[in-house]
Design goal:
Elements lengths: L3 H21 L2 H5 L6 E2 L3 E8 L7 E7 L5 E8 L7 E5 L2 E2 L2 E7 L3 E9 L10 E11 L2 E12 L2 E7 L2 E2 L6 E9 L4 E5 L3 E4 L4 E5 L2 E5 L6 E5 L15 E5 L4 E4 L1 E4 L3 E6 L10 E9 L4 E6 L3 E10 L4 E6 L3 E11 L9 E4 L1 E3 L5 E3 L5 E4 L2 E4 L5 E4 L12 E3 L2 E2 L11 E2 L2 E2 L54
Parallel strand pairs: 2-10, 11-13, 12-14, 13-15, 13-16, 14-17, 15-18, 16-19, 17-20, 18-21, 19-22, 20-23, 21-23, 22-24, 23-25, 24-26, 25-27, 26-28, 27-31, 27-32, 28-33, 31-34, 32-35, 34-36, 35-37
Antiparallel strand pairs: 1-3, 3-8, 4-7, 4-9, 5-6, 5-8, 9-10, 29-30
């Protein structure tokens, strides 16, 4: 009996080895899934992009919903090196990946970006590609599609004359109007500015010549829907010691300071900038910033939803606004819509003080979430500095109304203007609003922001005439 035990052991050992050998050919089938993949989307669609400007990164998930791991034989970008798209698989960039293992009931990420080449076409176009997945002999695809648009590109350049409006203008750094030069931007022009960029008027003159049904639009250069209401995408339109300039029927949105005026050309006899029939909104700092001696005139303006102030005057300057909406509905609703301060301590430690020879707001609404939508902080150095103000026929929200001051006459204090829908940015109002028919005819424009004729004897307060 004892002599049989070694043979029994040897026989058992070879039996186990034989079993392992015969089963090794089907090991893959036993341990790995033979199912196909699932995806969080079958198409990645990129909104309209400018040629040569890269997109945001979009991602999708690749799922193995089996209870066993799966080996993806190939994952490849169909267009390979010629593609406008760039592909990244779980942190690794490439155009071809082989034998990619996805654990049971797990997933991995795919990331895609796209940059479209110039094609010298004015009309939008579509660039398509796909990512191909081959698993257990099954081919699956995630489609890629991007709308493209060619554009005029400005990179720290100097401009004079008239911009064409047959395709958009994209600004990197700055597009400048230099000393004694003049630039006209015609109706229908779309201007897109890259991060921190600006339209820079330095001792020159700018005319934005929009029309009621063909406005000039200024905004950031990211066109994906995510950026529709993101503030601070660029700096703004900057006037430094500028010659007389005019902005008509413009939409300026999503920057840092929509319009920034710094001083003016000393030879000017009138205003540095006149702004008419325009909407300035959703800026991370100010809608209109007048700094150190600029002179601004505004008519029929809708200035709203800026983080700090709709209108900010600092270190002196002049202003005259008529039939305007200044609305403090920004991120911090407690900030005033209008802030006037005639002094400022600069980096050299010296406090600079400027006069306000003209400080006029008429037929306008100054309102918002906070109780104090008008902030006034001035010093006169014992009368050595001139401070003039003339506020007539306005509706103003102020916790402590200014009563008996001749600088504030015919003012409606703290009544709700009854805007149609603040959240949807509809700042028109019904006929029972206190804005209706309570403006001063002496100061009235003939037409409102939409070129509706105004009531000649009792116009509405603000940018709109509703009856």
């Amino acid at each position: 009996m004892n002599r049989l035990k070694p043979y029994l052991f040897i026989g058992t050992f070879f039996g186990i080895v034989l079993l392992l050998i015969t089963s090794s050919g089907c090991k893959k089938d036993l341990l790995l899934s033979n199912e196909s993949l699932h995806f969080s989307t079958d198409t990645l669609l990129f909104d309209t992009l400018f040629t040569t400007v890269g997109s945001t990164t979009k991602n999708f998930k690749i799922y193995n919903r089996s209870n066993r791991p799966v080996i993806v034989d190939k994952i490849q970008l169909a267009g390979a090196n010629a593609s406008a798209y760039r592909f990244n698989l779980d942190g690794e960039s490439g155009i071809l990946f082989e034998d990619v293992r996805i654990p049971a009931n797990d997933s991995i990420y795919g990331f895609v970006e796209v940059t479209l080449g110039e094609n010298n076409l004015n009309d939008p176009f579509v660039i398509e590609d796909s990512i191909i997945f081959t698993t257990n002999g099954v081919e699956q695809r995630v489609l890629l599609a991007a709308w493209g648009q060619d554009a005029y590109f400005h990179f720290n350049d100097v401009n004079d004359g008239v911009w064409p409006n047959d395709k958009p203008h994209v600004i990197y750094g700055f597009a400048g109007i230099d000393s004694a030069q003049s630039l006209t931007i015609p109706a229908g022009t779309n201007i897109y500015l890259h991060k921190n960029s600006l339209l820079y008027v330095y001792k020159g003159s700018l005319h934005i010549a929009g029309e009621l049904n063909n406005k000039v639009t200024i905004q950031g250069d990211r066109l994906e829907s995510f950026y529709d209401d993101v503030k601070g995408q660029y700096y703004g339109v900057y006037f430094q010691e500028a010659r007389p300039s005019l902005i008509e029927h413009a939409i300026i949105k999503n920057g840092t300071a929509g319009i920034h005026v710094f001083s003016e050309d000393p030879s000017n006899t009138g205003y540095t900038v006149e702004i008419r029939n325009s909407e300035i909104y959703n800026h991370s700092s100010y809608g209109i910033f007048n700094y150190s001696g600029g002179k601004i005139k505004g008519d029929n303006l809708l200035v709203h939803n800026n983080n700090f102030y709709g209108l900010f005057l600092l270190e002196g300057g002049d202003y005259n606004f008529n039939h305007c909406h200044f609305l403090g509905y920004g991120t911090d609703g407690n900030q005033p819509a209008v802030a006037i301060k005639n002094y400022f301590t600069r980096n050299d430690g010296i406090t600079y003080i400027g006069g306000i020879n003209e400080g006029t707001i008429t037929n306008s609404v100054v309102f918002g979430n906070g109780e104090n939508q008008l902030a006034y902080d001035t010093i006169t150095q014992g009368g050595a500095v001139t401070i003039n103000y003339d506020y007539q026929y306005n509706l103003i929200r102020l916790e402590t109304p200014i009563i008996g001051n001749p600088g504030f006459s015919n003012t409606i204090w703290n009544l709700n203007p009854l805007f149609n829908n603040v959240e949807e940015l509809d700042f028109k109002f019904p006929v029972n609003s206190p804005l209706n028919n309570n403006g001063g005819a002496l100061f009235s424009n003939f037409f409102d922001i939409e070129e509706t004729p105004r009531n000649a004897t009792s116009p509405d307060i603000g940018a709109y005439e509703v009856d």
